[in-house]
Amino acid sequence: MEVLIWMERRIGSVRLRMTDV
Prior knowledge:
The chain has one helix at about 1-20. By secondary structure, the chain is mainly α. It contains one helix and no strands. Helices cover about 90% and strands about 0% of the residues.
């Protein structure tokens, strides 16, 4: 399931941005 990995990667990026703020 590559879609799950892609979604997880996108969510991780958003989390990093939120944490950075």
